[in-house]
Design a protein that fits this description.
It is a single chain. By secondary structure, the chain is mainly β. The chain folds into two domains: 118 residues, Methylamine Dehydrogenase, Chain H; 120 residues, Methylamine Dehydrogenase, Chain H (7 Propeller). Helix content is 3%, strand content 43%. The protein has two helices and 23 strands. A hairpin with a 3-residue loop joins strand 5 and strand 6.
């Protein structure tokens, strides 16, 4: 069985990554694609390139139309990258974040060529997941760039695109998945999942989280959709319109 840890897509193509390798998703089939990592953990497709994260190179990228991968410069480090997340406006900002196994968050402003650590405010440097909020309206005078990180011991919120972090009010637990609602800026709803502590919900913009009673007690993955939320546990997919009431 092929293990998939990460899926990423652009309007033109879809990719999947995991310990068995990198795959292009074509007609619901997985086509193996060469990539440079010995231990592959994640992929992230943006408008002009594909990035992968893992070890030993940390992060690497492949420009559209080329066949040779380029290793990223990660401030002289070579962390095991577990997750990648692109700024919703990456085409103009060039910003992506990478979460590592032991060295925290890395940030790039040139679409993955060079990364620098951005760990101010983090209490734990094992980053299991990253999730951006939708961009705020450009005419908003206080235009924040909100992004969340799940670590081995808590959930962190950044109001400035990952430059600095503040721990949310939540129990000490490993949080492997975070999903931000498409209407986040009006509702403030964020969901966070733990494989051993169940589902947690915030309605104040990710500053504090409360347990969702009746939700599955094991959360492997979360996704926000225009019509609600999706959750997977070890057995099946669950659906919810509001993040509170779940049905398989």
């Amino acid at each position: 069985m092929t293990i998939i840890l990460s899926i990423s897509a652009t309007p033109e193509e879809r990719w999947a990554a995991g310990p068995n390798g990198l795959f292009r998703i074509e007609d619901d089939k997985l086509t193996p694609t060469p990539q440079p990592m010995e231990r592959l953990a994640c992929c992230c497709a943006i408008h002009d390139r594909l990035l992968v994260g893992g070890a030993p190179h940390g992060a690497a990228y492949l420009l559209d139309g080329l066949e040779e991968w380029q290793a990223a410069w990660m401030d002289g480090a070579a962390p095991m990258v577990l997750c990648l997340a692109a700024d919703p406006e990456v085409e103009t900002s060039g910003v992506l974040l990478a979460g590592s196994e032991s060295e925290g968050v890395f940030r790039t402003t040139n679409r993955g060529r060079r990364w620098v650590p951005c760990n101010f405010g983090l209490h734990n440097y094992t980053i299991l997941t990253l999730a951006w909020a939708p961009p705020m309206d450009r005419d908003n005078w206080l235009r924040r760039e909100i992004v969340f990180a799940g670590t081995e011991e808590g959930i962190y919120r950044s109001p400035n695109g990952g430059r600095g972090w503040k721990r949310a009010e939540c129990p000490d637990a490993p949080y492997q998945s975070i999903a931000v609602g498409p209407d986040f800026h009006s509702t403030g709803v964020v969901l966070a999942g733990s494989e051993d502590q169940g589902l947690w919900r915030s309605n104040d913009g990710g500053r504090s989280f409360a347990a969702v009673e009746g939700a599955p007690q094991r959360v492997n993955a979360l996704a926000a959709t225009p019509g609600g939320w999706l959750l997977s546990d070890e057995n099946q997919i669950w659906r919810s319109a509001d993040g509170l009431t779940w049905t398989p």
